Every structure is written in C-alpha cells, then in structure tokens.
## 1
Amino acid sequence: MQGIRGATILSLSLDIDLLRSFAVVTEVRALSRAAHLVGRTQSALSQQMKRLEEIVDQPLFQRTGRGVVLTDPGERLLIHAQRILRAHDEAMADLCGTGLSGTIRFGCPDDYAAVFLPALLRQFSSQHPHALVEVVCEPTPRLLEHLENRAIDLAMISLPDDSRADGSTDNDVIRREQLVWIGYPGLDSAQFDVLPLALSDPDTLDHIAACAALRRAGRAYRIACASSSLSGLTALVRSGLAFAVMTQTAVAPDLAILNTDSGLPALPAVGIALKFGREHPAHLTEIFAQHIRLTLPLL
C-alpha cells in the first residue's frame, strides 16, 4: 500500500517549468502580464496553473477584479517553489557551466541598501558566482539621473504610493514601505516650538512628505540638515538635535519610531519599484531584476 502511494506521488511530481511559470504569476499578480513574461499565451498559462492545482490538489489562486491573489496553499507552495527553483538553477549553473557572468551597475537608496541588499546580493551570488554587481547608493532623484545618462543599468527607486506621475502602474510596485518619524529615545517632539528636521535632499519623497504633512498640520519646523547621507542624518538624530523621516524597516534599533500620539502628523507610504537604464537591458540585468522582484517581497 505504501509503495502504491509512493508511486502516485512520484507520478504527480512538481515540474520545474510549471513552478517557474507559477513564480512569475505570483510576482506580477496578473495572468496577462505573466503570459508575456514567460512567452506563452494567456490560455496556455492558465492551463499550466490549472495543471499545477491538480497536481497539488489545492486551489492556488483567487481571482479578483485587480488580478489574482494567492490562497494559503498558494503561499505555502511559493516558498517551496522558490527554494526548488533556486536549487535547480544553482545545480545547472554548477554542472553545465551556464551560470551567468558579467557586471551589473545597480543603483539603490541608502535605506534600502542597508536593509535589503545583503540578502539580495548573497542569494544572487550563489546562483551566479561569476556575476559582479556594482552598487551605487544615491537618493531616487539622483538614481533617475544616472539611469537617464546610462551610468547605471538598473535602479531600485521610490514612488509616491498614490501617484503615477512617472507613467508607472500599480503592478510596477514590488513592495510598499511606511514612512515614519524617528527620534532619539525619550526625546519629546512637543518640547520644540519649531521642530528641527534632518531630511534627505529637498526633491526626495521623505523630505517632501515630511514638510507637506507639517504644513497641513500647521506645525512650525526648520531644516537642521538636508543630506543624501543616511549615516549623517541618523547621527544628527542620535545627538538629540533633530528628528528625521525614513522607511520603517530601515530604522536602527537604537532609535525610536514616533507615532501620531507624539503630536506629529501621519505620513504616507512609498512604493518600491525597479527601473532599467535601457529599453532593451542586457540578459544579466533582466535576470537580476527578476531575482529582486521574486525575493524583495519576502524580506
């Protein structure tokens, strides 16, 4: 009996091609866009996903007006699929010498680099040990300039969560991050008649959002420091001389996140997206971008 059950499981093994298509669907959350990325018709991709659901005997997707979302079994399968695909690709690269090589010039804001880059680069390097990623850390406006000048190949940028001024769509956002006020622990913002701020460059989202929120709240403020250096801004916060704004995941453990109870106005979220420097990027750059899209939401 046990042998029959084992044979049944083997006959319904998870196919790499199905798992790769599944991973792309979960990345973009829309069958039409995923079909374009995997080079299949939408009908063929739908049949693939139906076949995968039959193999695992579980519904993997729930269709909504805005695309597809994963069910609980789908979320569990995604974890396995990413691990299986990573191991498969590493094995093929090692045994067949198909690991990609070359150099990618990648741009990323300081706060994202500190939080996300170690895991992203470590995992990518394990799959493509001969690929070199050169990292440039700058605020989003400077990265967009570098992309325009083709000084970098790919950038992780911040987008206003409620704006599509650059032509992006909701599907371009890989992850959302909440902006928060931070200060030195025990320092009360209410003791300042004029709130001292340490913010990034004037054209960055955190700077714009902080000033706009304070103006709407009628709260007086002054810019004590405007710098593209995250370490410089956090040093000023640690001194107790200013308050800052950054994404919540980037807040160092020795600093305090200040909520609206402190008398500071609420701040918006920002979206994280990728932008290429060329209309037709190199294959290695596309592979690195796909790696980020698949990995970043899980970090």
## 2
Amino acid sequence: MDVDDLNLFVRIARLRNISSAARDVGLTPASASARLAALERRLGARLLHRTTRQVTLTEDGLAFLPHAEHVVSAAEAGQAALGGQHAGPRGTIRIAAPASFARLHIVPGLPEFCGRYPDLAIDLRISDSVVDLVEGAFDVAVRYADLGDSSFVARRLAPDRQVLVASPDYIERHGQPRTPGDLDDHACLVVGTLDLWRFKTPDGRTIERRINPGLRINDGVAIRDAASTGLGVALMATWCAADELRSGRLLPILADYPIVSTQALWALYPSSRELAPKVRVLIDWLSKRFGPHPYWDQGL
C-alpha cells in the first residue's frame, strides 16, 4: 500500500469530504476518488459510504483507520528523523487560530513564512471558538488562553500581558479610578465572557472584581476601538492594544494594581514522537516570531 494513499484516506476520514481532502494533498477530486477506489480494491473492503454531501466511514473503514494513521505517522516521523533536505515541508498544513490575534500577528508574517517554505500550502481557519483538532483535522491550533488540562502536546509561544486602559478623553471627563473598587463608578467594557478581573494589590494579595459591563462585545479589537473612542475602561491584552498605548490613544490605569493573568499563547498539536516537518517548521517560526519577549510589548 502506498503511504500517500493511506494519507489521503486519513484526510478524507477526518474531513468527511473528498474534495477538501484532495485539496489538502494536492490532487483533483477525481484523482482522489480514483486512488481511494484503487485502495479499496487492494484491501478487498469498502472503507467509505459516499453521498453527494459527505462521506462516512464503514465498519471496515473504522477498523482500518487507526492502522492507516499509525503508518502515516510513522512515515512522517521517519522523514522528520532524516532532517536536512529530505525533511523539507510540503503539502497543506491546517491551522486554527483566534480571529483577532491571527489578523494582527499571524497573517502579517505569512509572506516571510511562505517565502521560506514555498512547497507548503496553508489552510488557516480563524475563529474565537475553541475548535476540535481531531474533528477538524487541524495540524496545529494556536490558543491564547489558560491551557488547563489537554490531551495534546503544547508549546508555549509567548507570555500574556494584560492592562487596564482608558482613553485620555474618558479620563478627562470621568477621572481615574484609584482602586479596583472604584470601577463600580465607571463604565466598563468587556471582551466576551471575561468579566472577572483579577488584580494584585500593593501588599501582594490577589483580589477579584466581577464587572457589570456597560458594553460587552465578543471581539477584542472592537472593545479596543470602543475604549479608544472614550466609551469606558477596558481590560486589554497588550498584543491587541500595543499600538494604541504607544500612540497615547489609550492610557494604562490602576498601575498600582496590575492585572493577574494565567494565560499565555500556546501552540497545540496531536501527540507524536516526531513532529511532521510541516508542523515543526511552523511552530519553530511562531516561537521565533513571538518568543518570551514579544515584539508588541517592546517599549511599553
């Protein structure tokens, strides 16, 4: 059996769509269907039920899938172990990333990455919803969150830094809060469900304030822009608000009560003894691009 045929079957099984899987491996849908049919003939078993909208695994397909995945993973691990020119990344890498972060910090760097790896196609899906890596057949997921328990391998890409901000106009009209308790008298802007704000007090304690927001938007960039127009006080990640802080459109407040955060930027990928070359080069590039002292925090 051809490893490429097994890889095609694995992609079809994960994506439930022959056309999408064909695009991932650089084939036309017709060629992919023909190769899949040839694989089924060699195995003497039908692996997939085909409909006009999607494909599903047969009982034989379900039984065969883990063996196909094992062979594909072993082949990729062997290729990665060779290193050098034999491990040049190619094919399609599927990436999931938070929408605002991807637009601000991943997409602008893609010309450099694509120029370095011209044989590697990128399928980037941006969404603030937490995606299922296996169900979505993603090779890597970038998450900016409190990781918690995970069944995947995680590599820390960059720290999280959050600050409380307001516009000069808002501060001039309403004054600055002096303690977290003063926030009850201010208009507060909240990103999504992040309405529990944690602060470190001057004596080292951590205190919490549950915010009753005057404006809630499920997008960090939108809240940043709302704060810049003087609508209220916002808790912002510096990766989102760095330009506004440098320009003075937003000012940090409550400096004596810094925000406490357990979040970081992570790259998650399925467990494997050896990373596939395409996954390895992407994660290495992301780590170098951001790093422990990310460029967006320089000068803040």
